[in-house]
């Protein structure tokens, strides 16, 4: 199976050239277009309980689609959010992704929710991450462009800009400065990573964008009157 990511990083699209018998599993709604040689099967991967846990805790769709080519076919996939797409070949290893980052991957990969501890709750990022393990091709997305960092020692990241990281990296939450900075700087809490491994960042913060957009949202004023 050959692939190409088109139109990076603003409006990326995954183009897959698939041979007969090759398959890929994708999030619900990821398919953009496909040739008639590609057949789709929808199911709850890993069973009802595993699918419900991923959907509830890790922001993934309950049902996933498996696309299998019955000849030489072409398939286009994309992410739900406006942002970059990245490819990673896993070789009997793991990658930890933030909520909703998974787009598609080889059928041999195992996708499960991972407990992030209460530190994730206080960061406003949720209690769970997504753990992808095994061997095969993995495609994941971000909000904004993706920037990869090879960490060797310590690295500090705003929690809203984390896309994924290798499990060899450990992290804990901290504030950038004192209490005044925590509440008035607009930075909030940061994740301090330590160890050696790859870290994926996104150039935009979804929570910050939502707050900015909400300020421009039209609010209907209520009127009151009496007889």
Automatic annotation (TrEMBL):
Family matches, as InterPro entries: AIM24 (IPR002838), AIM24_sf (IPR036983), Trp_RNA-bd_attenuator-like_dom (IPR016031)
Source species, domain of life: Bacteria
Pfam families: AIM24 (PF01987)
Protein name: TIGR00266 family protein
């Amino acid at each position: 199976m050959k692939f190409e990511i088109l139109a990076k990083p603003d409006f990326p699209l995954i183009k897959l050239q698939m041979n007969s018998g090759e398959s890929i599993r994708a999030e619900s709604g990821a398919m953009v277009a496909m040739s008639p040689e590609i057949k789709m099967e929808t199911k709850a991967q890993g069973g009802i309980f595993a699918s419900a846990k991923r959907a509830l805790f890790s922001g993934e769709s309950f049902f996933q689609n498996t696309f299998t080519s019955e000849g030489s076919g072409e398939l286009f996939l994309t992410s739900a959010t406006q942002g970059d797409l990245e490819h990673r070949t896993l070789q009997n290893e793991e990658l930890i992704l933030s909520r909703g980052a998974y787009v598609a991957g080889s059928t041999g990969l195992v996708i499960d929710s991972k407990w992030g501890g209460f530190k994730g709750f206080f960061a406003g990022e949720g209690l769970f991450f997504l753990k992808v393990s095994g061997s095969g091709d993995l495609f994941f997305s971000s909000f904004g462009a993706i920037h990869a960092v090879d960490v060797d020692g310590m690295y500090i990241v705003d929690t809203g800009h984390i896309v994924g990281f290798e499990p060899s990296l450990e992290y804990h939450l901290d504030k950038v400065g004192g209490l005044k900075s925590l509440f008035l700087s607009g930075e909030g809490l940061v994740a301090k990573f330590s160890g050696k491994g790859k870290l994926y960042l996104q150039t935009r913060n979804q929570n910050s964008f939502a707050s900015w957009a909400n300020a421009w949202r039209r609010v209907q004023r209520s009127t009151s009157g009496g007889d």
